[in-house]
Amino acid sequence: VQLMESGGGLVQAGGSLTLACAASGFTVDVYAIGWFRQAPGKEREEVVCASRTDNNSFYAEFAMGRFAISKDIAKNTVYLQLNSLNSDDTAVYYCAAWGGCTYATGTHYLVAPNYYDMEYWGKGTLVTVSS
Question: Which has the closest alpha carbon to 28: 119, 107, 125?
Fold first, then answer.
């Protein structure tokens, strides 16, 4: 079982980037798949989560309207489209798989996840935004 991220790199502020999370050993439609990030000197934070059971997705406040998650079941890959990037988005981005997204009821905003629930993690891909 493996998750492998790709697509990171150097991008100018205001630019866009698409990250990919390729799964092997399981299919991406049987788990919630989320993206997390960790900036230098900061704690890991959840960016977005795609629900296992339906087409819903849930976002951190900083990601809402700028980032978008999508699944390609045929390729067994989950993508994260990053738009309007700024220097605060510089981080290592990780994908993870687990039982279900945690979000504020009635909204599409994430609440703090329980990291003990995460079953699989990728090794991350670095995104650097230059100003």
Answer: 119
Residues 6+ apart with CB under 8 A from 80: 18, 19, 20, 21, 35, 47, 48, 67, 68, 69, 93, 95
Q: Which residues are registered as beta bridge partners of 6?
A: 20
Q: Using the Cα atoms of residue 73, residue 101, residue 70 and residue 23 in order, give the sign of their dihedral.
A: negative
Within 16-87, strands assigned E span 17-24, 32-38, 45-50, 57-59, 67-72, 77-82
- Over residues 24-83, the pLDDT tens digits come to 999 999 999 999 999 999 999 999 999 998 889 999 999 999 999 999 999 999 999 999
